[in-house]
Amino acid sequence: MISRLSSAPRLQIHADAEAMIQAAAAAFVARAQAAMDAHGRFSVALAGGGTPKPLYELLATAPLRDAVDWLRVDVFFGDERCVPPDSPRSNYRMANEALLSKLPIPAANVHRLHGEVDPARAALAYEQLLRAAFRREQPRFDLILLGIGDNGHTASLFPGCACLRESERLVCAQYVESQHEWRLTFTRPLINAAAAVWLLADGAGKAGILADVFGGAYQPDVWPIQYVAPHGGDYEWWLDRAAAAQLPDA
Ligand SMILES: O=C1O[C@H](COP(=O)(O)O)[C@@H](O)[C@H](O)[C@H]1O
């Protein structure tokens, strides 16, 4: 299978969304354990949207919930809509309801993006929090979860946005014209420094954009997901057959 991406992802294609989520959940548990074995803790950045919700629900359910030492997990968010945390549009709210509120995880281990305050201040505060939490200039997540929109956006890196060009900041505030709202998002440098980046996508509705970004021209300002290219990290696409249907030779 030929990709035009600068860093081709490893494809994990499963029969259907349920099988994909089950495999991703088992791999999540294994990756958490491996990180804890290697350096004592596991840092993960969650994605929003509908795709990862069943993964979060599965991780919140025995036996997987009990297979992770949540006391040693640090949870962050890769992006957020600039809304209060109790808004139905809040990524934090979705992850909290599906996963976090059901885990024996200390509140101090969960770090949400503050979508309810001034966006520029919220982005700067989160960047400072990340630098302090990782105690290094360039934080390196053990795992960053991403989704993809049918316009090729990932996290809240949308087509044509100025934050796509960001090379210094870890977190940006961005007014997204197409969404008519402010967003907070991890930047390219932060995403690409991760030890692992997983993109989750399922359903026929994602097939066209996945084929475009995988095998089409390299035009990351149009399809921001193409900027994802972890250097020194694993890059995996977790897909069901419907989402993978238009990938070359799939
Ligand atoms: O706006 C967003 O959309 C993407 C994709 O969402 P999905 O519903 O198609 O899974 C998501 O990854 C991102 O976190 C969210 O803010």
What does this structure look like?
With 250 residues, the protein is of the alpha/beta class. The protein has one domain: Rossmann fold. Helices cover 29% and strands 19% of the residues. The protein has seven helices and nine strands. The protein has helices at residues 17-39, 53-59, 91-98, 119-134, 188-192, 207-215, 241-244, and strands at 10-14, 42-46, 73-77, 79-81, 143-146, 171-176, 181-186, 196-201, 234-240. The strands form two sheets. Strands 1-9-8-5-2-3 form a six-stranded parallel β-sheet. A three-stranded antiparallel β-sheet has the order 4-7-6. Strand 8 (196-201), helix 6 (207-215) and strand 9 (234-240) form a beta-alpha-beta unit. The protein starts with 9 loop residues before the first strand and ends in a 6-residue tail after the last helix. The relative contact order is 0.19. The structure holds ligand LXAUTJHC. Ligand LXAUTJHC binds next to loops. It catalyses: 6-phospho-D-glucono-1,5-lactone + H2O = 6-phospho-D-gluconate + H(+). This is 6-phosphogluconolactonase.
Helix/strand-derived category reads alpha/beta
Oligomer: single chain
> How many helical elements?
7
What is the residue-mean pLDDT, rounded to a whole number? 96
**Top CATH class:** Alpha Beta
Query: How would you describe the shape?
Result: globular
CATH architecture: 3-Layer(aba) Sandwich
* CATH third-tier fold name: Rossmann fold
Record field, number of beta strands: 9
Strand order of the largest sheet: 1-9-8-5-2-3
Describe the sheet with the most strands. Answer: 6 strands, parallel
Summarize the amount of helix as a percent range: 25-40%
Distance between the termini: 7 Å
Radius of gyration computed on alpha carbons = 17 Å
Q: Residue ranges: pLDDT <50 for 5 or more in a row? A: none
Protein name: 6-phosphogluconolactonase
GO molecular function: 6-phosphogluconolactonase activity
Organism: Rhodanobacter glycinis
Domain Glucosamine/galactosamine-6-phosphate isomerase: 16-237
